[in-house]
Amino acid sequence: xxxxxxxxxxxxxxxxxxxxxxxxxxxxxxxxxxxxxxxxxxxxxxxxxxxxxxxxxxxxxxxxxxxxxxxxxxxxxxxxxxxxxxxxxxxxxxxxxxxxxxxxxxxxxxxxxxxxxxxxxxxxxxxxxxxxxxxxxxxxxxxxxxxxxxxxxxxxxxxxxxxxxxxxxxxxxxxxxxxxxxxxxxxxxxxxxxxxxxxxxxxxxxxxxxxxxxxxxxxxxxxxxxxxxxxxxxxxxxxxxxxxxxxxxxxxxxxxxxxxxxxxxxxxxxxxxxxxxxxxxxxxxxxxxxxxxxxxxxxxxxxxxxxxxxxxxxxxxxxxxxxxxxxxxxxxxxxxxxxxxxxxxxxxxxxxxxxxxxxxxxxxxxxxxxxxxxxxxxxxxxxxxxxxxxxxxxxxxxxxxxxxxxxxxxxxxxxxxxxxxxxxxxxxxxxxxxxxxxxxxxxxxxxxxxxxxxxxxxxxxxxxxxxxxx
Length: 470
Hints:
Helix content: 40-55%
Shape: globular
């Protein structure tokens, strides 16, 4: 028996037409070049210096660098940064030319950036703009540490996955104070405030911004995607939101493999097992998709220390914005819930691997590479195969087009800032709510059973035993 992921991917691929080059997965030159053209980012270019992952194994084969930076300089700049993640392009203002870039921190011992790094930074401003300053924002200082975020998420899921009905009733008695004690909404607020501040720097101060963190593939993905969501109305459409996640999370190398614990073992043992396993062995765990939990058990002794809830934090931030600006998003809350469920699915390649290099390394050790490459499908193809009645729920009925052009168009989209001033950004961050459809799902099932009858107590016990085995 082959791996469930590859086996399922082939079934889905047969029901989809062959994907043309430049289809929004940001694994080709055309994808990046079209995004540059859409935003009129004339001071940036697409480089293939990483085509064989000689620059960085955590970056995609193609990415955008300042036009004045040669491929040789790209290698020199990358060598100065952790994981060789040099400043790469994320978004540009189509009118002023100010840009947003992401990177990891400069390695210790390099006191002064070399000339190539200076060229990369100074080349971020468009020639038609009179502004040339670049601000560097260290997210390790401005955002909550990942350790605190994960501790809050652990408390959050413990609050919503009680071990008994008695514990559930005790949690319910002081639920709001317990929810505040988890600190989760504080992290949502911090992320929204930082994103709105970066957006104001781009729009009001008209400075280009480089956001950086230690490895440059967790908090940078979070803040970069939120900034683009606030700044560009195209990313608030369904097609644009898919491209945003594909560009800022999947192509940028967010380590989904270890962050969401998609497999039951760590990356090294997974790779070694995949190489040594006979054809009849299944490496990926069998999942029962009817109970793919948003809050999977935190009580497992083999919990991966690299697990993180950064991507859920992003989806929660988007949900908060959708609650407060319901007419500006084409997709619905149901679409966000379905997307989160797909994080735990093994039917696609999007949230299963830690970037394109990791995916390529797995394929290269699995034998028939050419066949499997042609069969791989992204999560978006899986969502397309849902029943029509369900797909209609992806759309937000309150959404209104602000411009005559449809958001699916690849033409240059007009800039539409969501949070226009500091006061509005602070108000949004204060009016937060709990995403009950995600965080409270398990509690709802428990509450439905806990009415005192013996047979329903048995159902509660069975449900708890099932959850402990997830």
